[in-house]
Amino acid sequence: MGITTPTHDGIAKLTNCRLLRGNELVWGDVWVSSTTGKILRSQATFYDDLIMPDNTIDLKGRIVSPGFIECQLNGAFGFNFSTVLEDMSEYRKRVSDLNKRLVQTGVTSYIPTVTSQTSDLYKKVLPFLGTSGQRRAAEDGAESLGAHVEGPFLNPGKNGVHNVGVLRQAESFKDLEDMYGTSNINPDAADDSIPIKMITAAPELGHMMELIPELRSRGIVCSVGHSEATYEEASVAVAAGATMITHLFNAMRPLHHRNPGVFGVLGIAERLPRPFFGVIADGIHLHPTTVKIAWNAHPDGFILVTDAMHMAGLPDGTYPWTNGEAQQFITKKGAVLLLEGSETIAGSSSILIDCVNNFLQWSGATIPQALKAVTSTPAAMLDLKGVKGSLEAGADADLVVLSDSCTEDGLAGLVVEEVWKFGTKVFDNCTA
């Protein structure tokens, strides 16, 4: 991993590039500081402060995008977050190693996801998965924005690969505290941050619907998923404060012409705020046309996710996985992951740039529209607008430099060429 060593002010000017600005690619420059880790206001830096950049880098027409934000990552490169190790200090090291490899794919921030597990596992791993960018150290690689607990308050009828034996219903907030650990879900008086950033739950079960406002008051994103919710039930959940849908269409009541199910809340007939939603565009979980339909239903809520397992980045084979109370195995063959001995899809082995390129080829969307689905839209969902997912002055200087090319069919494809974290280049495809 090549690291650019900053000089006295650590200011770099990236020039002769196309910048992602809303729905356009605009020719311009972007100035970043490795000292502050922020994007600078170039006019004020140059004309008012009379500061010259330490480095001027000609990108030769390539695209500069904000760093990618991954909202559903179960693991990668051989490590799964739903894992208890005999020595949990080794867990921290494994997460650190994953972060340094993940950033090279263009993902500069992410939400580590823990699937439906026992209470003991949650309590052991969640303290290692909270926000990790406090040091603002580029060499740490991708940063966690807080953990996503996908379960265990899911509908057994839509469990997917989750172990039904550990699924539960929540009757009170104490059930959530008992499951995840009080300190993992309640802000400490001296520190507002908590490890959990997002919870996926089936709102139709138990008293989860009434618990959504309590979770939102703690800054936790409530996502509808693994659910048999009807359109009416999903609407009540959105009205209560659910702002996200986990892997739309997968593990939920299907769209029906007389009851559109969870998908229906992407419409505007009831005048409810429309939620954001994740889509796995790996070519396995959803038909390409289904992905296109979802995007056209609500482009501003569309978020590309991988739902990647620890087999991402590994060769084909059979790998162990802790699935609740059971030790199970997942077989990887090409891009397909199946629970051993079944035809049940067990997450994906894709990386996020693959999903971006698939979406470009299937949808007819422009490059800016596709990049928004992994930058500004997930940032808005996570209440990080203006901090992540943006090239505006004051935002964190997390950048991806991309080259674009066309296939024989004239379809666009993007390649990650450079990655910058907090104003420092941490990956260069030319030297990797």
Keywords, please?
nine-stranded parallel sheet, eight-stranded mixed sheet, alpha/beta, 22 strands, 432 residues, globular, disordered N terminus
Question: What topology does this entry show?
Answer:
Blueprint lengths: L10 E11 L2 E10 L5 E2 L1 H7 L6 E4 L4 E4 L1 E6 L1 E2 L2 E2 L7 H15 L4 E8 L4 H7 L17 E2 L2 E4 L22 H8 L1 H4 L10 E6 L6 H10 L3 E4 L6 H10 L3 E2 L30 E5 L7 H10 L4 E4 L11 E7 L2 E8 L2 E4 L12 H12 L3 H6 L3 H6 L17 E8 L5 E10 L2 E5 L4
Parallel strand pairs: 1-4, 1-5, 6-9, 9-10, 9-11, 11-12, 12-13, 13-14, 14-15, 15-16
Antiparallel strand pairs: 1-2, 2-3, 5-20, 7-8, 17-18, 18-19, 20-21, 21-22
Summarize the structure.
The protein is built from 11 helices and 22 strands.
How would you describe this protein?
- It is a single chain.
- The chain is an alpha/beta fold and 432 residues long.
- Helix content is 22%, strand content 27%.
- It is built from eleven helices and 22 strands.
- A hairpin with a 5-residue loop joins β2 (24-33) and β3 (39-40).
- The chain is globular.
- Mean pLDDT is 92; it is low at 1-8.
